[in-house]
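Ops channel
N.P.: pipeline sanity check, posting one input/output pair.
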């Protein structure tokens, strides 16, 4: 089976809503969750009824479960790929497909002690499939790095394989023309909760909650896929909580 990158999977769905949520505690620990939802009304609008392959599924697992279950396959991968699998060992995944209730979503999440330790959750499902099916691991064209020193939070997305990125971008442009006449539900939302009040956000379109501790920033998904660096962000917190 031909490998399809996590980023390309999102693109091919054409009607996906992605929400990246981060909660940071006072000690710098926290949680991250990437929720990918296929909007079923948009999907059916494209004339794509459910196929026999889309049977009911509701699966929850931790990546380490796959490393243990497919230990023989794991041993066949090179040291670099094995190390990549181990980076995702604590990542939790929830995959649900319900044709009757018209639900189709993936939830990928992880706890962290330091935000710099977060692996690229956008490739976790693809890596799990590679391990399960013994597919070659295909590296992504991008990586996301997070940093937080207690007062300044940064999200930096870097293109690490320009050739692959350009290829994916060209395919996206072709699909964008193909579905231009449809009104599809496509969104990419960043929702971050901080332990102190927010002083400033580098993107002026960000919405800050009334208690100033939560920031929400919404993009058009296709814009992010074509120019993912627009999601780069810096959030500066107040030195002291507002009274």
């Amino acid at each position: 089976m031909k490998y399809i990158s996590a980023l390309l999977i999102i693109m091919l769905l054409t009607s996906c809503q992605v929400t990246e949520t981060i909660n940071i505690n006072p000690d710098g620990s926290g949680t991250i969750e990437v929720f990918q939802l296929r909007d079923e009304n948009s999907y059916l609008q494209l004339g794509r009824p459910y196929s026999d392959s889309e049977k009911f599924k509701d699966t929850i697992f931790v990546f380490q479960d796959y490393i243990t279950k497919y230990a023989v396959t794991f041993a066949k991968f090179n040291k670099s790929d094995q190390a990549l699998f181990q980076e995702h060992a604590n990542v939790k995944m929830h995959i649900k497909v319900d044709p009757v209730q018209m639900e189709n979503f993936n939830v990928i999440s992880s706890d962290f002690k330091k935000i710099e330790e977060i692996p690229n959750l956008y490739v976790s499902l693809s890596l799990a499939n590679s391990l399960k099916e013994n597919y070659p691991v295909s590296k992504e064209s991008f990586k996301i790095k997070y940093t937080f020193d207690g007062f300044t939070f940064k999200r930096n997305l870097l293109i690490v394989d320009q050739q692959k990125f350009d290829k994916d971008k060209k395919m996206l442009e072709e699909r964008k023309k193909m579905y231009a006449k449809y009104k599809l539900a496509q969104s990419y939302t960043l929702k971050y909760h901080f332990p102190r009040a927010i002083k400033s956000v580098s993107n002026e379109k960000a919405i800050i909650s009334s208690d100033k501790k939560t920031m929400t920033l919404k993009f058009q998904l296709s814009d992010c896929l074509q120019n993912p660096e627009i999601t780069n962000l810096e959030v500066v917190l107040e030195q002291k909580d507002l009274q």
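N.P.: looks fine end to end. The mean pLDDT is 85.
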